[in-house]
Amino acid sequence: MPIVARVEAGDSDFETSLQRGRRGEVDFESAWSLFSGASQRNKALELFSLASGIRDEKLGRELVLSAHIHMITSCEVSPSCLYCSLSSADRSISKERSRLTTRELIQGVKYAVDKGVQSIVLVGGTDLGGLDSPVRRAVEKVREITDIDLAIDVGPSLSQETVRWLKDEKVSTVYCSIETVTPSAFTKAKPGDSLNARIECMAMLEGAGVKLGNVVMNGLGSTADLLRSILCLKRFKSLSYLYISTFRPVKGTPWEGKRPASVWTSLKALSIARLVFPRAHVGLAEVGVEDPGNIARTPFQLLAGGGNALAGVLVYKERRINNMDLIRSCASSLGFETRYLTV
Domains of the chain by range and CATH? Predict the structure, then answer.
């Protein structure tokens, strides 16, 4: 691939690509030029500054804090994704992401609301055969407690009828993450999953008029794969949330010995994603049981143009992580405000 084999982008190429970024005209050539050029510190700061300025102009500097509640459904993908904590042979790890009982779900929602989050993302595993009934039951239980803004993240597991029902229940966003758009990288990392099903599901969600959320993963393929995965989402006009996850080897998984991906790569990709999606909420993905150090990167993602929705609370089977105060303190030191409910 001659584009990938290039040396670092020259000053003129980098500046031209920055200008394209200001105009929202990022293609693969300019994305690669920005990424390559940003290997130099001064150019990285230029890229981050541009991305942050666009974020401030389009979204402002007020952060909305959410809760991610794992898991409302079991994952039936088989074989399991090679990197996921759900595939870990270490029971102390995989158990954290086993399905919540109804009582545990209710307790988790009450805990999150009590901490003042503005929204909740109900996260579950994927079943290509469908998860309509358990997702509806989970939403019904949440709606008995609160009318808080809700999002659902269970992959390509929902029928069009259930998506319409979710809209009626004021579920504003549905995630169907591609992780990577490169078929060979997807199949290698996710042998039991279907990239086509995920793309078809995103098209269905957009047609239904719901906001779309997505995650792409740094580390499933090459840097070129990562950039193409971001750019391929331009076709979905309803994309409102895009997070960059950074591969970290998880003990007990088939990929536990694989080299971790670079957070610096994720931050540069985040800035480029901001140029591609100026009005979307863009940031680093949060999976506390796989990457517990992610909260420490909050200031870096904000400086790179991330925002404006951050996970302040993470709820798992046997663990609750409350980062609300840490995020507020960090946000305040950088000149951001945080919005949260008072109860």
Answer: 60-339 (3.20.20.70)
